[in-house]
């Protein structure tokens, strides 16, 4: 039964253009290993070689944000399992790469994150550049209990993206939502 499921999964991943997927707890070591695999894959693709650094940068931003957020104090007492794990998917179409990420988020943080994404999506390229430079100079807290990397990371992803950042919020329970981000490079 599992063998058939795995071949079905592989067929579906191929059909959707998925070149890498990871789900589980993120750590700096996991991010580095996956990052090396991504660089090797993208460098072997002559059609999209010019976007290598952008895809890699978006991947790093998304995984660092997951790692930082899920290792924050908010999740320290929650235990492991689905709550403490994230998801990253990298795929390609004939024209672009796409990077998805997903993780649990406290509802209040989800609202702040969605608001930040909407604000960033409303900026043009020059405004994004100015906002990024301004954010680099600031050391403010973005989400309670985290280090401000989320705002800078979102700006960086928006700068590398060829389309607005997409997000989906899925209600998990009264305290948590699952957020999925999609960036097209």
Give the helices and strands, then pairings.
Blueprint: H1 2-15, E1 18-24, H2 28-43, H3 52-70, H4 73-76, E2 86-92, E3 97-106, H5 107-121, H6 125-137, H7 149-160, E4 166-171, E5 176-184
Antiparallel strand pairs: 1-2, 2-3, 3-5, 4-5
Whole-number average pLDDT? 84
Q: Which radius of gyration do the C-alpha atoms yield?
A: 17 Å
Name the beta content range: 15-25%
Compute the number of strand runs: 5
- Which second-level CATH architecture applies? 2-Layer Sandwich
Summing up helix and strand content along with how strands pair, one would put the structural category as alpha+beta
**SSE string, helices as H and strands as E:** HEHHHEEHHHEE
Major sheet strand order:
1-2-3-5-4
CATH class category:
Alpha Beta
Distance between the termini: 37 Å
The share of residues in helices is 40-55%
Q: How many DSSP helices?
A: 7
CATH topology (level 3) name: Heat Shock Protein 90
What are the segments in which pLDDT stays under 50 over at least 5 consecutive residues? 140-149
Explained architecture:
With 185 residues, the chain is of the alpha+beta class. It has one domain (22-184): 2-Layer Sandwich (Heat Shock Protein 90). The chain contains 7 helices and 5 strands. The protein has helices spanning 2-15, 28-43, 52-70, 73-76, 107-121, 125-137, 149-160; strands at residues 18-24, 86-92, 97-106, 166-171, 176-184. A 5-stranded antiparallel β-sheet has the order 1-2-3-5-4. Strand 2 (86-92) and strand 3 (97-106) form a beta hairpin. Residues 140-149 have low confidence and may be disordered.
């Amino acid at each position: 039964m599992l063998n058939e499921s795995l071949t079905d999964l592989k067929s579906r991943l191929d059909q959707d253009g998925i070149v890498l997927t990871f789900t589980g707890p993120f750590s700096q070591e996991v991010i580095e290993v996956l990052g090396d695999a991504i660089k090797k894959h993208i460098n072997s693709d002559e059609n999209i070689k010019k976007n290598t650094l952008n895809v890699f940068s978006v991947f790093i931003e998304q995984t660092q944000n997951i790692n930082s957020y899920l290792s924050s104090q908010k999740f320290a007492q929650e235990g492991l399992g689905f709550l403490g794990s994230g998801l990253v998917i990298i795929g390609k179409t004939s024209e672009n790469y796409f990077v998805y990420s997903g993780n649990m988020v406290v509802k209040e943080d989800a609202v702040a994150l969605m608001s930040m994404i909407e604000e960033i999506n409303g900026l043009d390229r020059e405004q994004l550049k100015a906002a990024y430079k301004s954010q680099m100079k600031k050391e403010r807290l973005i989400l309670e209990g985290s280090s401000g990397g989320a705002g800078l990371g979102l700006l960086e992803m928006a700068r590398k993206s060829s389309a607005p950042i997409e997000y989906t919020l899925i209600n998990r329970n009264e305290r948590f939502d699952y957020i999925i981000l999609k960036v097209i490079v």
